[in-house]
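Hey all, quick one. A colleague (J.T.) asked me to put the fe (ii) ion job into the tracker so the inputs and the structure tokens live in one place instead of scattered across chat threads. No bug as far as I know, just bookkeeping. Sequence used:
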Amino acid sequence: MINTFFNLPFEIKKSYARKDAYSAGYVEPSKEILKQSDNVKELRESFDIIGNFDGFIPNEIEKFERSLLKMIEMGSDFFSKFLRCLEIGLNLPFGTLQDMHAKIYSDSNMSTLRLIHYPPIPFEIPENCVRCGEHTDYGTITILFQDNMGGLEVKNRNNEWVQAHPVPGALLVNVGDMLQKFTSGRLRATPHRVLIPEEERRKRCPRKSVVFFLVPDNDVILKPFEEPKDETKSYETSHDYLYSRLISTFNF
Ligand SMILES: [Fe+2]
């Protein structure tokens, strides 16, 4: 299904272009630059499903909408269970995290399902190119399904980049910025990137992944759990933090 969508003619994909931070749609290569320095070019395209996506699903592909809805349903179910596990692990009252994500897939929550396609690398590689620049994800957690091409690297606590090799049947979970804020850094957002492969065979092969970014409801305040309430202090909302990250990385 991912192949079918990304194999559509560019003009058709472009007719479903994502228009702003709130809308679903196609993101062409170089529209989103995650690493904001060194004039890096990022070779990937994606299709994002966010909030209320009525009218944004390409009708050129049979059963596309149904498959996406199924993925959203399965992802939402996983998140609910995972958040409960986090509540137990962090000693939080029952429902603390689940209640913060109660409006997933509505206009009041910006969680996003993203299909990503990294095209084969051209023979003449432009300068400063990567497939995906170094960054941390913005929300609570991210789940990632990757194909068997590999290439994803994550930074460990010793500041070393290590390969996140694909494991058949496994999904990868990343901690995002907002969970780091909630836990005062006890759980740290994981820096990650996808470089141009060194091996010739892998350079010429596309890479695909399916990513689901879980974000708290728009009005959730990003206050650390352990910090006492202080009326004199102000905190960002989930919406404001995410919006500021999106407009600094997207060229809508
Ligand atoms: Fe990411």
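Adding what we noticed when we looked at it: Residues 64-89 form the longest helix (26 residues). The chain is about 25% helix and 20% strand.
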